[in-house]
Prior knowledge:
The structure holds two protein chains of two kinds.
Chain A: H1 3-41, H2 43-78, E1 83-87, H3 93-105, E2 109-115, H4 117-128, H5 131-136, E3 145-150, H6 156-169, E4 173-178, H7 181-222, H8 224-232, H9 237-280, H10 292-317
Antiparallel strand pairs in A: 1-3, 1-4, 2-3
Chain B: E1 2-11, E2 15-25, E3 30-34, H1 41-48, E4 56-61, E5 64-65, H2 72-78, E6 81-84, H3 96-107, H4 111-124, H5 140-152, E7 158-162, H6 170-185, E8 189-193, H7 197-202, E9 206-211, E10 214-215
Parallel strand pairs in B: 3-8, 3-9, 6-7, 7-8
Antiparallel strand pairs in B: 1-2, 1-4, 4-5, 9-10
Helix pairs in contact in B: 3-4, 3-5, 4-5, 5-6
Amino acid sequence: xxxxxxxxxxxxxxxxxxxxxxxxxxxxxxxxxxxxxxxxxxxxxxxxxxxxxxxxxxxxxxxxxxxxxxxxxxxxxxxxxxxxxxxxxxxxxxxxxxxxxxxxxxxxxxxxxxxxxxxxxxxxxxxxxxxxxxxxxxxxxxxxxxxxxxxxxxxxxxxxxxxxxxxxxxxxxxxxxxxxxxxxxxxxxxxxxxxxxxxxxxxxxxxxxxxxxxxxxxxxxxxxxxxxxxxxxxxxxxxxxxxxxxxxxxxxxxxxxxxxxxxxxxxxxxxxxxxxxxxxxxxxxxxxxxxxxxxxxxxxxxxxxxxxxxxxxxxxxxxxxxxx
Amino acid sequence: xxxxxxxxxxxxxxxxxxxxxxxxxxxxxxxxxxxxxxxxxxxxxxxxxxxxxxxxxxxxxxxxxxxxxxxxxxxxxxxxxxxxxxxxxxxxxxxxxxxxxxxxxxxxxxxxxxxxxxxxxxxxxxxxxxxxxxxxxxxxxxxxxxxxxxxxxxxxxxxxxxxxxxxxxxxxxxxxxxxxxxxxxxxxxxxxxxxxxxxxxxxxxxxxxxxxxxxxxxxxxxxxxx
Lengths: 324, 226
């Protein structure tokens, strides 16, 4: 083969590839717009589908927002974890004060407060209402207390735990426990709820897949004759699939946007009561919504589920339709 | 263009639709397939367009052995064929323009080119004025002509028509047949299945008669009565 002719063939091949890419792009744009048009032609049906998807997405996302807010509040409390160390009854007052001073100089401890047995009794008498019962006792039953506040570090949870063990190991200490055990319990509960939300999100995600898959299935059977004709005139599977995949995309996108609207609306409704509650606790608190990244994830997962749902449906049902 | 070598077609369930068919239709020819209902006329067209697969023998269309045309190649193979049907099979929610444009859209033509070609095809079947109508608003003859415009708009080398005049009166039928004749004159190979023997005899083209799945005659079938 002579050189110019080979060059000509090369040029020809590049032109063919260019042409194929243009066609591919053109057909994608056509399918993109066509599927949107289909959606707009049945506004009520499309809206219903999108809202079902939106609600399914909004439920886990909404729970997530509530959880995030709870965590923000409780993490404020977490910083002020205190450990109460009960000294043994036979430890003298001097030794107790000495120990308090020793501990205060130790690394990892921010502050130690010494509460003598008498102070403790007075406080108890005042706050419990058992004053008279206490009078009946001959000895003060309460031990000396040390209130130890750990230094806030990178990992307060672990630092507090190791400090608790250290304190328990001291010979003078009878027992030591977290002052705010309930914060830890709350955090443990949040962890459980968090996981439940995660599981729920998976279930609802599957529901979205089924909803979209079923909607696309109905679309496919609704346009059965059209698919048959298109196949007869040489449409490839890709050509026929494309509009349905884009329909799934649109449903997912609309569902995601709808979910975002639901969550934003709900937060608006909750904002005032939340601020009011915070004021009662003399605290400053703003209800946090979805940040841009989380919004992107919400809408993105809508689109993802839409595409996957329609893809499953399309690959399952389109094969069954052959021209007859 | 079309060659059948000892082709058998058996439908699932053991019904023999075609038995030992041997046909050769040259490129650029026009031929009719006739016979009673159930003789295998439609099956023959369906084998050519790969809607059905033959069970034995060999079919060569446009130089391609149909046994080898599978998977994605089916779609590309069909782009060289134009189809018309007795029941038109137009998409009733699309305009005449969109219906005729379908084969071009599938093949990925640009919009300007599509517009040009659709107008030319509709002009050919004298329906340019109905370009924006919906098929349901057209008469049966007009719908059939839209179907023909769709079948030729992508300039296929082979035109297959299954009972194109089945629902039309003799006058309209004759017009439609003449239309097919015109496409044949510009080089398209045309194969028409029809039971309207009187009319196809007037066309003075080759007639292939099927009876119970077998070819009866090849050349001297002008005398054959249904």
